[in-house]
Amino acid sequence: MSYCREEGKDRIIFVTKEDHEAPSNAELIADDPNDPYEEQGLILPNGEVNWNCPCLGGMASGPCGSQFKEAFSCFHYSKEEVKGSECIDNFRAMQECMQRYPELYPQEEDSESSPPQGQSGTAPTTDSNPPASTSQSAPSSDSEAPSEGQNAS
Fold first, then answer.
1. DSSP secondary structure letter of residue 118
2. CA distance 140 to 153
3. Which stretches of the chain are DSSP H helices?
């Protein structure tokens, strides 16, 4: 049995399998030229984030939309000395979610995998020797460049 209930501003509709099998009679509504959120930009006059802003590229919707909103909101409202430093867990959750949907959120080439600017040559594509320990990834106190076979951290 299908039914609908209101929770605040949201309407939750439960439908039966039979309801889904019938063709839809929904009509799409054209964009409202008087929509107060349409031309506001990323931040609304009241200081809130405009999740409908085209500048977000649809990141606020989809399977990782809630994680994106949490991370972006945390950063936007951050009062820390290093802005957003308290949001690392939110961004990590967003990244983990996006990695579960590679067809929706394609991974760009890692900028760390390309050679640093000012160095010529290409990075080796295979390495037959695995790293001896994980301590190589920790930052070094001296500023020496990594030698051949070491990874830059």
1. T
2. 9
3. 17-21, 65-76, 88-99
